[in-house]
């Protein structure tokens, strides 16, 4: 069966499926698949179809009407971490840190737009020519970004960041060489002792994954409020958890709920910890105020190329909210944030914890910091290879800044 015959047969099967079942109603996947199987077997009486061809037709049509069309096999492939659709014909995937062109494509722009609309509709969001940019998520928590024409010049653009079904643990990071065992234990103690941690790094450096991993060190009897643009965190084992997600404005420009709104309302929910998925604007001020008003142990992330860059970005973000004197903003940052963790994606596509830095104080208008852990200093070359070795173990546990030995319990 050539491609032309296959396309024609798929269209006939789709039409027969629409005629046999109202797809707008809440028909179960099992009912759709049962009807679809019957239609395909009926077609096979008119022209010979092998068992393999029947299975392929059922899978293709089912994915088109109930899943994500030609992208569904890529979604199901656990080795793929990112799917990038650049118009109809150019579909790329990231596998093992490398970008490759996938052997799939959409037959028409309408099919691709239908996939995008089905994704955003499930999370009550809207994307069209008047609002052509949208962030959403899949049922499994995968992050989705879509951009439609006329903003996107080469057709509808869809980017899907997949997350593993099983959350990554700190043991995995140590095994992969992203972090030393001593530094991992130190971070676990910091989280349990309720220090405010901020994670920074570039795009794709693993900030959300690392935030999720640290969140799982939170004691199980605490109440947590998570605040995200699109819900991605996979915090397990904690029963007293509230998950909040932003909402875009409707077609009339009303009803928007921002991260700032969610941070403010979370303070009335008796949180013991507040976890903000990412700060990128004026909400930085609300996050800092929350950290400074008794909500110790809070966690958040932001985009920056270094610890110093992150401090500068926080200053800028707070200035977007209110025109405070720069020295007052720096004092607020120094009082709120205890530790900044800088992640990076290296040229070999590996992800590493590059620095763990404590924020000391604001002295003479400048924020003072102290590097507790550096990836470069934590690695020694042995016979041409690299082995993890934290050289500053004693300094980390007994430094002279905020984290004196008495400040962190030996056993939590």
Brief characterization of the structure:
This protein is an alpha/beta fold. The chain contains 14 helices and 16 strands.
Key phrases:
3 domains, 8-stranded mixed sheet, single chain, 14 helices, 412 residues, 16 strands, elongated, alpha/beta, Beta-Lactamase, 6-stranded antiparallel sheet, disordered C terminus, Rossmann fold
What does this structure look like?
It is elongated, with a radius of gyration of 25 Å. The chain folds into three domains: 3-66, no CATH class; 71-161, Beta-Lactamase; 170-407, P-loop containing nucleotide triphosphate hydrolases (Rossmann fold, 3-Layer(aba) Sandwich), CATH 3.40.50.300. The protein is built from 14 helices and 16 strands. The protein is of the alpha/beta class.
Fourth-level CATH superfamily of the largest domain: P-loop containing nucleotide triphosphate hydrolases
Mean pLDDT across every amino acid position: 83
- In the CATH hierarchy, what is the architecture of the largest domain at level 2? 3-Layer(aba) Sandwich
What oligomeric state best describes the polypeptide chains here?
A: single chain
The span between the termini is: 65 Å
**Overall SS class:** alpha/beta
